[in-house]
Specification:
Elements (H helix, E strand, L loop, with lengths): L15 H8 L5 H13 L8 H26 L1 H7 L4 H4 L6 H19 L2 H18 L9 H25 L5 H21 L4 H7 L4 H5 L1 H25 L3 H23 L1 H11 L1 H25 L1
């Protein structure tokens, strides 16, 4: 037994609950959802593909995303000691270098699972894991700049799993419609990443992490996040109209209008309401991802009927 500077007794090995907390299950949803949107938008009947779908979801969420969270907590342990001292590493519930060991081991396991699922999945997982380590670890540590760090996470969370699912389900490169949607929703996710930085402003300032709330200030960063998310969805709506999918465009328009109402309330008190907006506003954004995926799927279904 040893006693850390925080005054808490710790054990030589972390307990299972602390390990699970380190992997942050609540963060697994975005890449898993994007992967499902890729399945839907591929136009392929999921029957007969369920083993791949289930393993792909595990890889996108608990494995690759979990690895990114473990790596981030290890390299952010000094910042977390200020912002969130109850986290497993600064609290002493994750003793020694166990946070780093878990991140490295989980990286290896993720790559093994990805390799078993095929070359496309392995390549995508390798890119995602590289972005995860580049985001958190020196010398790159992309998170030191909010513009670069948020872009890397947005791509890894939204665009990459979406495109990977399409590649594997169809066995061919995605068409331009799919690429456009994945790119736009990744762009919009940059705003979501900015919202996630609000809770760590104090520690980021003290430790020299130039997140966008630190660079721009809370109010301007909040406005930027809302604008980025909105612009992405307006572009999606325009594309759906151009593609003669007015019903899907109308649904996403309704979701965006609801977000405008919530954004106005959020921007009035961004510091107090960032968690609230993440809980009630962001789900409307990601629901639009599924609507757009269904729109693209309708193209494939229509083509099959014609044939």
């Amino acid at each position: 037994m040893a006693r850390p500077a925080y005054g808490l007794v710790i054990q030589r090995r972390p307990a299972w609950p602390a390990m699970l907390e380190l992997l942050k299950p609540v963060t697994w949803f975005p890449p898993m959802w994007a992967f499902l949107c890729g399945i839907v938008s591929s136009g392929v009947d999921p029957a007969g593909h369920w083993p791949f779908i289930v393993l792909g979801l595990i890889l996108a969420g608990p494995m690759v995303c979990g690895t990114s969270q473990a790596a981030n907590d290890w390299f952010d342990r000094h910042v977390d000691a200020i912002n969130e001292p109850q986290r497993p590493i600064p609290s002493g519930r994750m003793p020694g270098r166990w946070g780093l060991y878990i991140a490295v081991w989980w990286t290896g396991v993720s790559l093994l699972l990805a390799y078993a699922l095929g070359i496309w999945v392995f390549g995508a997982a390798a890119i995602g894991l590289a972005l995860a380590w580049a985001y958190s670890a020196p010398p790159l540590r992309l998170k030191r700049n909010g513009w670069l760090g948020n872009s890397a996470v947005a791509l890894a969370y939204e665009g990459l799993p979406w495109i990977t699912a399409v590649l594997v389900m169809t066995g061919a490169a995605p068409d331009l419609r799919l690429l456009a949607l994945a790119a736009l929703y990744s762009f919009g996710a940059h705003g979501i990443m900015t919202l996630n930085d609000f809770k760590s402003v104090q520690g980021d300032r003290r430790m020299g992490v130039a997140s966008l709330p630190v660079q721009l200030g809370i109010e301007r960063a909040g406005l930027l996040a809302c604008v980025v998310m909105s612009v992405a969805q307006v572009a999606v709506i325009a594309l759906l109209i151009e593609w003669d999918r007015p019903v899907h465009a109308a649904v996403i328009t309704a979701l965006l209008l609801a977000q405008f109402v919530l954004m106005r309330r959020f921007l009035a008190r961004p510091v107090e309401r960032d968690v609230w907006y993440n809980a009630v506003g962001v789900p409307l954004y990601v629901l639009g991802m599924l609507v757009s995926a269904l729109a693209v799927r309708s193209f494939y279904l229509s083509a099959q009927v014609i044939v």
